[in-house]
């Protein structure tokens, strides 16, 4: 019976086998120890981070609560300040309207003078002149303006102050709206918990938004708005006091000035009629001369066309004679005569063209000046029409100058909110 051959491969000894078993046990024991340490550290970290997170959440809630209180306090301050601004705007608007009513002393003569000045401002070109009529009309308006100067200044200042108050009111409203929006956002954040369905992870939540401000800048901005509002209210109160002290009415007699203005207006109307008649005569004469010039231009064109035909004939004869052969290609008297004829005709054509150009330029200048005269005539007729309308407008003074009754005046009253009424005021 034969024996089996030994299996190939490395065989370990019994000490190696024991050593390997001991190594496996040691490694397992070491890994269990490390795992136990990590588990203990993880439990301690969980407890520590849980407390820290809870504390941070509570601290954030307290900070949000304090912030809500600060914003709410500033919101109330801004609301109170805005209400005071509204009250002052209403009081200043009422005082401004009362001052405008004091200007009701501007009666029909002022309306007529202003309307005449406005009508005469519609003149164009050289008709827009500073003549005695304009001087008398300005004197007429200055008689009333001197009396109303201080009242008008107060009205202008009150209007500017109303604009300032309106701007401040807008700034307060904008700041108040921002405070209300911030208050809604912070209260919404304060109401959120870890169980709220609205919470989620956001991209880069710790970024600093553009335009962010510091708490000091935030407080200073609202303080500036409130301080500016209080200063504007104080200025407005002082302005109302000044207006109440300077309101007055006055009456003036314009009979002499009215007559002087009417005389200057009638004289100016007569001068403009004379200038219009003279210009119409010049236009007619210019049109006659333009017709004669156009006729001469047609004659020059016809003569130029005839001379061009003669030049063509001479050129053709000269060209045909160049085809003579041999000794017959002679520079004879005919050759010299044709050359002289060509030069003469060319000189004649140049002279005719020069004269035609001068005639056309003269006609163009006359047409241009004719257009200018027509335009000036239109402006003179328009100016004359405006003068006649001014005289018709001033005829309203004749119906009131002989009565003692003060005319009724329509005074437009407009407040800062845009309300406009036409109040019938009788002095």
UniProtKB/TrEMBL annotation:
This is Tektin. One of its GO terms (cellular component) is microtubule cytoskeleton. The lineage of its organism: Eukaryota, Metazoa, Chordata, Craniata, Vertebrata. InterPro entries: Tektin-like, Tektins. It is found in: Cytoplasm, Cytoskeleton, Cilium axoneme. Belongs to the tektin family. The keyword Cytoplasm applies. Keywords: Cell projection, Cilium, Coiled coil, Cytoplasm, Flagellum. Signal peptide: none annotated. PANTHER family: TEKTIN (PTHR19960:SF7). Residues 387-411 are annotated as: Disordered. Pfam families: Tektin. It comes from Channa argus. GO terms for biological process: cilium assembly; cilium movement involved in cell motility. Its main location: cytoplasm. Residues 269-303 form a coiled coil.
